[in-house]
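User: Here's a protein and a ligand (guanosine-5'-monophosphate). What would the complex look like?
Assistant: Let me lay out the input and then the predicted complex.
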Amino acid sequence: MNTAEITELKALLSEPKRIVVIGHKNPDGDAIGSTLGLSTYLKKLGHNVRVIVPNDYPKFLKWMPGNEDILKFETHSDNCGTLLKKAHLVFTLDFNALHRLGPEMEAVLDKLDCPFVMIDHHQQPDDYARFTYSDASMGSTSEMVYHFMKMMGHLQLLDAQIATNLYVGIMTDSGSFRFPATTSTTHRVVADLIDHGAQNSDIHRAVYDNNSENRMQLLGKALNNLRVLPEQRTAYISLSQQELDACDFKKGDTEGFVNYALSIENVVLAAIFIESEKDEIIKISLRSKGDFSVNEVAREHFEGGGHINAAGGKSTRNMADTITYFISILPSYQNALLNA
Ligand code: 5GP
Ligand code: MN
């Protein structure tokens, strides 16, 4: 966003508006953290603000301050549709293409005339927004919300509720501050969040230390299904619908499993394939180390996208064929894999 756009947005926000803040489908810690953080800030400016996400999200995010006010389009489409049609301004956070909302919600957004503001850290943003704050070097959208408040000249409005939400987003998207996009600036932002009331240790515990026994059993199955392809420096995990059912799978249970594959010595590319009978797809998460771009792999082969080191997509083949296909494309990345 350039100075003129910031000035224009400041003018738009100088009078009370009806605002909707939106996160992507299958919201993660950064989607929920950034939308709740931003909405709390906008409310403090005197606006009427609602957060809408397309569908449900994991239990380990449901303690976050403001969680109870989040509307799910999936179960409240009429109410959400009305709010969207009446909105003066729509903020879209942690995604940069409207199809990431799913077809039903995308169709409603497509028909709106009000200006959109995008705040996002994925590569190659679409151009639907009147104001685009896009920065792929950022580790999280939540960190960008902090910088956005600063750009607006409103950091003095930072409070414990905003700080807690932004902390969750930064922590989860950075793998607890270890992924390469974590900078000294990230740590300075986080320090300021802690100074404003984010209880860092309690937050970590609330997000990560509430495993169910079923989830641990599922992790056991995932690790049992782990395969390593040393020549390609690749490891992958699969989970069938049957295995998920046997462990009473709940949303979010497989979060982070793919990182076990990536943690293997010499491995630079990791994948997890998760069957969804309901959606008739295999959901794929890809992770990498160094310069190897899983965003490219997801875009070229699995109708998806993401970042250089974390991306996702899907396959309409069955599990066995999806894995065979995945293995078949690896030779075309051989050099990149060896040099990552
Ligand atoms: P995850 O593997 O944790 O679901 O997602 C990792 C990253 O890839 C996230 O930044 C997410 O936004 C992106 N991503 C995951 N699935 C998809 C998808 O189906 N399409 C696109 N474009 N991006 C995805
Ligand atoms: Mn994010």
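Summary: The chain has a mean pLDDT of 97.
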